[in-house]
């Protein structure tokens, strides 16, 4: 009789669930938007911030501190959610992010801003992981594909509107509102999650692996610093870079060793026994490598070579982002309807490879229409991959490991973006310098002294220097995207070995250890 009652309660809840899930997802998308929009808004405001606070020599640390804190804290947030409940961990990360945003807006010098950005980054590390893990909890893998388009849409909105919103806020309200704007959005997300999301409580019997977390944070921080400083602040072969590489390798080797001994490892190595999970981590790394490199170099190419306006830099990426959004929605619906997904990693990796190769063919004569078509091919490839990688990774682990699986996949994508920006950037800069020295001779110093070589700045240069710089940028872009195409080959090889494991039709029930109240009736109260 009790079972029948629970079944009726469950059935009744299923009728209500779509509306409840939509409300929860709306708040999760706001949190995701906060995490993705922040750096793009702040990046637009940086010249104004430096003008008021000074400290130009520490400018890069405003971004680096945020990135370091985000990457280092990501795995820890995932483990906290697994141990003590995802709702509490997610709401805590929102609060920390909002505190960091408020303090950053009140910063009086560059040192304070860097420190407060680190606090903001600690919270941001839990936002993306929390969104992915909560979706993994609430939506069965078979149905999860439907919501891919929403996440891809949030990403597209952030990349397109970020620079525009940042410029508008800075011009009309002042740079401090670039941080304050997070507060009302964050409060809405916080209240919605608190009021609508009701997950079964966990006992929190486990402990945090502090030594493992420390070793992982140290290793990640060293890697991020190597990719950030290498070739810019320090030469790649300098003693400082070699020291950081040594520290990073030692810390990560120590971390892997300790995870085999720890009673409650922060990243359980057994999740990598799943072939699909390991392959999705590799593909996620490649996506980060390619995507953030493209976001960096495509606007630069279109502004410097094709004469586009820097003000609308986000709109320059519309062909790529629009294709990514459309294909992601189609991939989600097909996956939900058929339960099959291997075709998408294969097709996505192939399209990504082709798109990067086509972008590498751009030169000073390439039209905007042609470059837009090339970007659309790349965007279609990433649309096949962006959310499918997370879906397959989550489908490859047990429910108790959903948090660490989500955080580990997110971490690999973050590390990929760091490596992509660093390596593609180093190659780009090297090629630009070589071509400028070859074509412009002494006039190459003119371009080096220009603070921002956008269309307006280029128009003021001597014709020889302007043509030389445009040719140098197209050559550097060619080399950077050719490197990206080479790396994308790894993604295609990995996709070939993906095993099509059937997607689970319903969420797994938490074990007795995870949740003392995980009866069918309690699960009916989940949303």
TrEMBL record:
Subcellular location as annotated: Cell membrane
UniProt-listed CDD domains: MFS_Azr1_MDR_like
Entry's transmembrane regions: 23-46, 58-77, 89-108, 114-135, 147-165, 177-198, 210-229, 241-258, 279-301, 313-331, 343-360, 372-392, 479-498
Residues covered by the Major facilitator superfamily (MFS) profile domain: 24-503
Entry-linked InterPro entries: EmrB-like, MFS, MFS_dom, MFS_trans_sf
Compositionally biased intervals (Low complexity): 517-527
A Pfam cross-reference name: MFS_1
Membrane-protein topology: Multi-pass membrane protein
Annotated stretches, region: Disordered: 505-527
Alphabetical UniProt keywords: Cell membrane, Membrane, Transmembrane, Transmembrane helix, Transport
Protein name: MFS transporter
Species whose genome carries this gene: Streptomyces dengpaensis
Organism taxonomic ancestry: Bacteria, Bacillati, Actinomycetota, Actinomycetes, Kitasatosporales
């Amino acid at each position: 009789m009790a079972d029948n009652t629970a079944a009726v309660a469950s059935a009744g809840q299923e009728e209500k669930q779509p509306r409840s899930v939509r409300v929860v997802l709306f708040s999760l998308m706001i949190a995701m938007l906060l995490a993705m929009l922040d750096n793009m808004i702040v990046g637009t405001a940086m010249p104004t911030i430096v003008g008021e606070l000074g400290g130009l020599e520490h400018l890069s640390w405003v971004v680096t501190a945020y990135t370091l804190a985000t990457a280092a804290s990501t795995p820890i947030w995932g483990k906290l959610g697994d141990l003590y409940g995802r709702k509490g961990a997610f709401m805590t990360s929102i609060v920390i992010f909002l505190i960091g945003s408020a303090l950053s807006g009140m910063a009086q010098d560059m040192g304070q801003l860097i420190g407060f950005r680190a606090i903001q980054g600690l919270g941001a590390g839990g936002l993306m992981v929390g969104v992915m893990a909560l979706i993994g909890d609430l939506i069965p893998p078979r149905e999860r594909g439907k919501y891919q388009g929403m996440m891809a849409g949030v990403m597209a909105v952030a990349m397109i509107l970020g620079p525009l919103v940042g410029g508008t806020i800075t011009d009309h309200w002042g740079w401090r509102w670039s941080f304050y704007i997070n507060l009302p959005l964050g409060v809405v997300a916080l209240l919605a999650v608190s009021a609508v999301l009701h997950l079964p409580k966990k006992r929190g019997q486990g402990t945090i692996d502090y030594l493992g977390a420390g070793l992982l944070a140290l290793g990640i921080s060293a890697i991020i610093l190597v990719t950030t400083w290498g070739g810019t602040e320090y030469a790649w072969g300098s003693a400082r870079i070699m020291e950081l590489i040594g520290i990073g390798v030692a810390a990560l080797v120590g971390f892997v060793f300790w995870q085999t001994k720890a009673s409650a490892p922060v990243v359980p190595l057994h999740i990598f026994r799943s072939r699909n999970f390991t392959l999705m981590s590799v593909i996620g790394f490649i996506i980060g490598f390619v995507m953030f490199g493209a976001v960096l170099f495509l606007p630069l190419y279109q502004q410097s070579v094709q004469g586009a306006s820097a003000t609308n830099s986000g709109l320059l990426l519309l062909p790529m982002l629009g294709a990514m959004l459309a294909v992601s929605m189609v991939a989600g619906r097909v996956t939900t309807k058929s339960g099959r997904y291997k075709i998408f990693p294969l097709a996505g990796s192939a399209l990504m490879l082709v798109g990067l190769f086509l972008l590498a063919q751009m030169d000073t004569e390439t039209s905007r229409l042609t470059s837009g078509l090339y970007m659309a091919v790349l965007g279609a490839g990433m649309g096949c991959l962006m959310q499918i990688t997370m879906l397959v990774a989550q489908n490859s682990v047990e429910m108790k490991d959903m948090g660490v699986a989500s955080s580990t996949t997110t971490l690999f994508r973050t590390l990929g973006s760091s490596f992509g920006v660093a390596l593609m950037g180093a190659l780009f800069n090297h090629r630009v310098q070589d071509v400028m020295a070859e074509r412009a001779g002494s006039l190459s110093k003119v371009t080096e002294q220009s603070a921002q070589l956008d269309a307006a700045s280029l128009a003021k240069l001597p014709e020889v220097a302007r043509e030389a710089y445009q040719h140098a940028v197209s050559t550097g872009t060619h080399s950077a995207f050719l490197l990206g195409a080479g790396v994308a080959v790894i993604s295609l090889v990995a996709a070939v070995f993906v095993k099509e494991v059937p997607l689970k039709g319903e969420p797994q029930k938490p074990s007795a250890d995870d949740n003392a109240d995980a009866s069918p009736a309690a699960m009916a109260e989940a949303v």
